[in-house]
Write a structure and sequence with these properties.
The complex is a heterotrimer of chains A (about 110), B (about 250) and C (about 90). Chain A is about 40% helix and about 5% strand. In chain A, strand 1 and strand 2 form a beta hairpin. Chain B has about 250 residues and is of the alpha+beta class. In chain B, the strands form four sheets. A five-stranded antiparallel beta sheet of chain B has the order 3-2-6-7-13, with helices on one face. In chain B, strands 4-11-8-5 form a four-stranded antiparallel beta sheet, with no helix packed on it. Chain B has a two-stranded parallel sheet with strand order 1-12. Chain C is of the alpha+beta class. Chain C has a single domain, classed as Ribosomal Protein L30, Chain: A, CATH 3.30.1390.20. Classes of the chains: A mainly alpha (about 110), B alpha+beta (about 250), C alpha+beta (about 90). Chains in contact: A-B, A-C, B-C. At the B-C interface, strand 2 and strand 5 of B face strand 3, helix 3 and strand 4 of C.
Chain lengths: ~110, ~250, ~90
């Protein structure tokens, strides 16, 4: 069925929604947890063998876990050009495959 | 790096000072994403210690996951690429332990046995086929090493039932609970398909021909064994467990 | 000695060249490929570079590619109970 929308009528009109939908947010949380799980597994395995890696230690020192993060940090990131200094995390290139968890303090 | 760690401590302070998340609720939050049975005492002490001194951020205490190294159970280590264990080959199974049937299943089984036409959801190479006695089936492949007239037994079933009752497996029903016999009728073939393969800047066209063959069969019988039969074959009646199979009546 | 069992779940298409190279160094060439590496800090560092793309488990035994494939192979679900020749032999005896 044809549903008249602006993008179908006007030709070139591509719009990215300004915020994430709730399934998108759910999937984002799932991905954050998956990364946490990978890091936990790696660190547990290393601890069992009496080794350690700088990358894992640095991750634990700097990055919050999924359940510790504020919703604001999960779904948005700092942008100096926005009025509210925040934009949706889906504006970040390759946002589903990069770890972006911390933002400048105070924003 | 420095600014990030400063920020981390800042945000954790902010969150701890927030009234909604008190320090008492911390172990409960930890419970949410970890199954309680997997936590050991050491982890518990870890979470408790972190709740006692809230200055240390939660992430600094790495929470070990249930990643106890698994030992894979392989009786025979395959040597060549053609080595396939007997369990994954179409050969008649040999049983080492007797069939275990729960009491409740024994009590409910006569209802299912009594109501005749039975159906079975047999899985052939993990694909389900809903079968009743007398059905003709055409498999989506040519079954190797069978001839017309051979009798096959289907031994992987995910559901077994009649009009009103269904026995569901988790994920499969024990193959000693039922009999599903099938006779190979023959081989069917699809009409020849010709696909023209062209390449750019060439007049030549290649023809790719395909004519697949499929095995057809007829279901001889689908039979659920009665409790007496099971006992005669050496089934053992055990107490009910939480995940024991149950017969569900149609609502 | 235990091993990391690493499975590539997400492809590195469009990601920086370094990421692709790390995957290549780990031996992950396509999605759903599984490799085994002994637990060591260097392997851990490599995993940390591509932690968003892979799934990691710690396992006790090394498994060959064939064994990994056998794990996924389903049961056939059938067996030959009686061939035509057997049936004919039985009927002739009677």
């Amino acid at each position: 069925m044809f549903k008249p929308t602006q993008s179908l009528f006007g030709g070139l009109l591509w719009k990215t929604p300004w915020r994430l939908s709730s399934p998108q947010k759910a999937r984002q949380r799932k991905r954050l947890r998956a990364v946490d799980r990978v890091v936990d597994t790696v660190s547990a395995a290393l601890a069992r063998n009496g080794q350690n890696t700088k990358a894992v230690e640095r991750w634990y020192k700097e990055m919050p876990r999924e359940e510790e993060m504020l919703p604001k940090d999960k779904y948005t990131l700092f942008d100096k050009k926005e009025k509210s200094y925040r934009k949706g995390i889906h504006k970040l290139p390759k946002w589903t495959r990069v770890s972006q968890r911390v933002n400048p303090p105070g924003f | 790096m420095f600014s990030r760690s400063v920020l981390r401590s800042l945000t954790s302070d902010l969150r701890l000072s927030a009234p909604s998340i008190s320090t008492i609720s911390l172990p409960q939050r930890a419970c949410l994403h970890q199954t309680a049975s997997l936590r050991n005492a050491q982890q518990q002490s870890q979470t408790q210690s972190s709740s006692l001194n809230p200055e240390t951020p939660l992430s600094a205490t790495p929470r070990a996951q249930e990643s106890i190294p698994e030992t894979s159970i392989h009786n025979i280590i395959p040597q060549t690429r053609d080595d396939i264990p007997l369990a994954k080959q179409p050969v008649a199974p040999t049983f080492t332990s007797p069939l275990e049937v729960t009491k409740s299943l024994m009590a409910q089984l006569p209802h299912l046995v009594g109501q005749t036409p039975h159906y079975v959801t047999a899985e052939i190479h993990a694909r389900p086929f809903l079968l009743t006695a007398g059905d003709h089936i055409r498999l989506p492949f040519l079954m190797p090493k069978v001839k017309t007239g051979d009798i096959l037994r289907f031994n992987r079933a995910s559901a077994l039932g009649s009009r009103d009752f269904t026995l569901k497996g988790s994920p499969h029903i024990d193959e000693r609970l039922f009999e599903c016999r099938v006779r190979v009728i023959g081989v069917e073939s699809e009409p020849l398909r010709i696909k023209e393969k062209t390449k750019r800047r060439q007049r030549h066209t290649k023809q790719a021909r395909s004519k697949h063959r499929y095995t057809t069969m007829r279901v001889m019988d689908v039979r659920v064994k009665s409790p007496e039969e099971l006992l005669k074959e050496g089934a053992v009646v055990i107490e009910d467990a939480a995940d024991s199979p149950q017969i569900e009546a149609r609502s | 000695m235990s091993y990391f069992r690493i499975t590539l779940l997400r492809s590195a298409i469009g990601l920086p060249r370094r990421t692709t190279d790390v995957l290549k160094a780990l031996g992950l060439k396509k999605r759903m490929a599984t490799v085994f590496h002994p637990v060591s800090s260097s392997a851990a560092g490599q995993i940390m570079k591509v932690k968003e793309l892979v799934e990691v488990k710690e396992v006790e035994n090394y498994m060959s590619q064939h064994e990994v494939w056998l794990e996924r192979k389903p049961d056939p679900g059938y067996y030959v109970e009686k061939t035509v020749a057997q049936e004919r032999g039985e009927s002739l005896q009677q």
